[in-house]
Structure formats: structure tokens, C-alpha cells
Write a structure and sequence with these properties.
The chain has about 180 residues and is an alpha/beta fold. The protein is built from seven helices and five strands; from the N terminus they run ββααβαβαβααα. The chain has one domain: P-loop containing nucleotide triphosphate hydrolases (Rossmann fold, 3-Layer(aba) Sandwich), CATH 3.40.50. Helix content is about 45%, strand content about 15%. The radius of gyration is 22 Å and the shape is globular.
């Protein structure tokens, strides 16, 4: 889990980014997430917004991105989330295997934002992609507040189990009625 603060729309946003592309990497991810047995479905359900990245120099990564987009739309059907499809490695135009129109057509098919960039050449392009996704997430929360609140509200039973796991069960104590004197 990567955590950072970004400025967008005249507001500071706390981002928690789960990179699900490399489940076996030794990146500095949150141990709770890394060691959990989260399935791809759980990772998608967890997300408020999704970025799907492919390399314009690798057709297989584009096909994998299409698969991820299909999964996101299927899993988030009841509570849709903003999605952006990013074609990376724009600086390697000579090695391009995925044309811009294929990326744009896929984005249209899955009703998501689309952009191509070069993370190696311009951090600003990456920032702009995140900012556009934040704007979409903000609009989504504005237009769907009840759905968003319902999905993010912790289940009471789950919270009880969590509290018991953290603090343990309290021992049974006989409780006396309070003594009342007039």
C-alpha cells in the first residue's frame, strides 16, 4: 500500500494506492494488505477508483488491461467506480505495439477515462492522470452519496469481531443493579 497526499481541486487528498500488478514483489506495501489473502475481486471491491495501466510497447499488457477492465466493470456493477485506462511508455513510440485508437476504443467500450503518457519522462503527466481520477471520484461521491456511504459503512458484526480480536473478550462479571437511595 502506497500512501501519499496530493493537492487537487483546491483540496488535499489522502491517497491509498494498492498496486495489484506484482503480488510477489518485495515492495514496501502495508503488511496487512500484502499478507492478506485478498483476491483480485476483494482488491477491486476495496477501491474507490481504479487505474489500469498497460505498456504501449507490449500487446499482451494491453490484453491484460482489457481483462482487468472487464473484471472491474463486472465486480463494481452495483456500485460503479471511476476508472482510467493509462497507456504508459509514450517515450518509446518507435516500439509501439498498441495504437492510440485501440486504447481510446477500449476506454469507450468500458466507459472510462483514457490517456497515454510517459512516466519516465514526465511526472507531471502522472500527476494529471491522478488529478483527473480524483475529480471523477469526487463527482461520483457527490452524485451517489447514499451508495458510497452504504458501501463504506463497516458491518457491525465485522466491527465486533475486529474489536474482540484486538482487545479480547471481556470476562463475565456479575453486574449489580445500582443502589438507589432517596
Amino acid at each position: 500500500m502506497y500512501r501519499c497526499m496530493v493537492q487537487a481541486e483546491n483540496k488535499r487528498w489522502k491517497l491509498e494506492i494498492l498496486d495489484s500488478s506484482n503480488n510477489d514483489t518485495q515492495q514496501t506495501l502495508d503488511p496487512a494488505v500484502l499478507n492478506s489473502d485478498w483476491s483480485a475481486e476483494e482488491r477491486i471491491l476495496w477501491a474507490d477508483a481504479v487505474i489500469v495501466v498497460y505498456s504501449i510497447t507490449d500487446r499482451k499488457s494491453f490484453l491484460a488491461a482489457q481483462h482487468w477492465l472487464h473484471m472491474v466493470r463486472k465486480i463494481k456493477a452495483e456500485v460503479p467506480a471511476p476508472v482510467i485506462l493509462l497507456g504508459n511508455k509514450g517515450d518509446l513510440e518507435d516500439f509501439r505495439q498498441v495504437c492510440v485508437t485501440a486504447g481510446a476504443k477500449t476506454a469507450t467500450q468500458f466507459a472510462c477515462l483514457f490517456s497515454e503518457l510517459s512516466a519516465a519522462e514526465s511526472a507531471q503527466q502522472v500527476i494529471e492522470a491522478f488529478e483527473s481520477l480524483i475529480r471523477e471520484a469526487q463527482l461520483h461521491q457527490y452524485y451517489h452519496p447514499k451508495i458510497f456511504a452504504r458501501c463504506k459503512r463497516p458491518n457491525i458484526i465485522t466491527m465486533t469481531k475486529l474489536i474482540i480480536a484486538l482487545f479480547g473478550k471481556s470476562p463475565k462479571v456479575k453486574r449489580r443493579r445500582p443502589f438507589l437511595s432517596l
